[in-house]
């Protein structure tokens, strides 16, 4: 009987030890799961904070890049405008120089008298008034009813029946500049 008691006692002790081991394993398993869950939550929280900071840095970098690109575009456009204006001023000066040489040439005398020939073929010059610079009047090859006018670049204008026909070199110069700007697209 002693043997049976010892066996029953041992079975009870073994059962208790087995229950304690199972509960210890359950507690450890639960603790491991809880620990892993907290580690995952902590990692997600930190990743979210880092991602937010990264996104903020990306946004700041994008804004800075956009600002720099805008400044560069502005500077390039400004440099192009300045270059365009310089080229346009150079072209205008060269054209004025060409006009000044033309006014001193025989071609200018031919221009004035050719314009009178053209007008005479279209209108009655005896009823017209020719506006011309004083020094240019002497270049005309015929007598016309003339009045001296301040035509800065030369040429002539004709008043006829409440109309003014403009053959002044200043108007032709302005038209040439406008046409050059339009054709060359330098105003873009």
Relevant terms:
about 190 residues, alpha+beta, 2 domains, 4-stranded mixed sheet, 4 helices, 4 strands, rod-shaped
Low-confidence segments:
none
CA-based shape = rod-shaped
Number of DSSP-assigned strands: 4
Radius of gyration: 50 Å
Largest sheet: 4 strands, mixed
Beta-strand percent range: 5-15%
Strand ordering within the main sheet: 2-1-3-4
Quote the average pLDDT. Answer: 89
Please describe what this structure looks like.
This protein has 188 residues and is of the alpha+beta class. The chain folds into 2 domains: 1-104; 105-184. The chain is 74% helix and 10% strand. It is built from 4 helices and 4 strands. It has helices spanning 2-103, 106-122, 134-137, 169-184; strands at residues 129-132, 146-148, 155-160, 163-168. The protein has a 4-stranded mixed β-sheet. Strand 3 (155-160) and strand 4 form a beta hairpin. Helix 1 (2-103) runs antiparallel to helix 4. The longest helix has 102 residues, at 2-103. The radius of gyration is 50 Å and the shape is rod-shaped. The relative contact order is 0.06.
């Amino acid at each position: 009987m002693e043997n049976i008691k010892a066996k029953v006692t041992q079975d009870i002790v073994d059962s208790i030890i087995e229950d304690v081991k199972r509960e210890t394993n359950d507690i450890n398993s639960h603790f491991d799961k809880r620990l892993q869950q907290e580690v995952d939550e902590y990692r997600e929280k930190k990743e979210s904070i880092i991602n937010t900071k990264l996104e903020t840095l990306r946004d700041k970098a994008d804004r800075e890049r956009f600002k720099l690109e805008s400044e560069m575009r502005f500077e390039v456009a400004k440099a192009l405008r300045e270059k365009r204006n310089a080229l346009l001023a150079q072209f205008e000066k060269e054209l004025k120089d060409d006009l000044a040489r033309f006014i001193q040439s025989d071609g200018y005398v031919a221009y004035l008298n050719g314009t009178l020939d053209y007008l005479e073929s279209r209108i009655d010059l005896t009823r017209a008034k020719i506006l011309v610079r004083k020094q240019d009047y002497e270049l005309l090859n015929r007598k016309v009813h003339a009045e001296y006018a301040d035509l800065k670049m030369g040429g002539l204008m004709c008043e006829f029946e409440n109309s003014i026909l403009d053959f002044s070199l200043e108007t032709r110069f302005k038209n040439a500049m406008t046409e050059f700007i339009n054709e060359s697209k330098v105003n873009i």
